[in-house]
Amino acid sequence: ERGLQLLELGGSVEEDCIRIARCFEATRQRCCRLEQDGRRAREQLARVEAERAALEVKLKHARNQVEVEMKKRHRAEAELEKQERKLQLVLELLMREPWGNEALSREQCSVLSALAGRRLGAALAPSRRSSAVDESCQSLLSHSDISYDRTEDDV
After folding, report:
1. Residue 110 covered by a domain
2. Average pLDDT taken over every residue of the chain
3. Helix, strand, coil distribution of the chain in percent, nearest 5
4. In whole angstroms, what is the distance from residue 128 CA to residue 117 CA?
5. Which spans of this chain does the record mark as coiled coil (predicted)?
6. What's the CA gap between 6 and 102, in Å, rounded?
7. How many domains does the chain have?
8. Backbone angles phi, psi at 42, to 5 degrees
9. Residue partners of 87: CB distance under 8 A and separation at least 6
10. Which among 6, 24, 82, 127 is most buried, taking Cβ atoms within 10 Å?
11. 42: domain range?
């Protein structure tokens, strides 16, 4: 359109041709800059997608590791509860048997009765469990509350 306007203005044909050539050159230069910008954007996109793919692999490995550790923890807690039940039964048996009280010292009997009187796990858990989390009180987030999004796993 601009080329047509220049032709309609009149003047020498030579000047009009020079103006049209300058417009074409400006347009060509703008196209070259846009092409370079597009190339840089595609290269940056490729780098970012490669980084995203690497991070997704790390996330998948981390999710798998969390799942494995949670299974280990559940098994360990189940074993601990099983052992606590066994010990509780032994303590109850010792406290009920008349020969048990005679064979034990007065101090041992008082310790056993104290343990038998309350939940055994609460008495032994803080000293036996090695954990960075203080498990002697209720945490706002327990291990069973951990959830993560698996929607991206199929990518």
Report:
1. no
2. 77
3. 80, 0, 20
4. 19
5. 38-97
6. 120
7. 1
8. -65, -40
9. 120
10. 6
11. 7-76
Q: Which of 77, 58, 64 is nearest to 142 (CA)?
A: 77
Residue 40 lies in a domain: yes
**From CA 148, how far away is CA 44, in angstroms rounded?**
29
Q: Which residue shows structure tokens 């090695």?
A: 130
The residue type found at 66 is V
Tokens of 108: 């041992």
Structural domain contains residue 121: no
Question: pTM of the entire structure?
Answer: 0.48
| Amino acid at position 42, single letter | R
Q: How far is CA 61 from CA 35, 64, 67, 124, in A?
A: 39, 5, 10, 35
Asked whether the beta carbons of 115 and 123 are under 8 A apart, the reply is yes
Per-residue model confidence as pLDDT tens digits over 48-105? 999 999 999 999 999 999 999 999 999 999 999 999 999 888 888 877 776 655 666 6
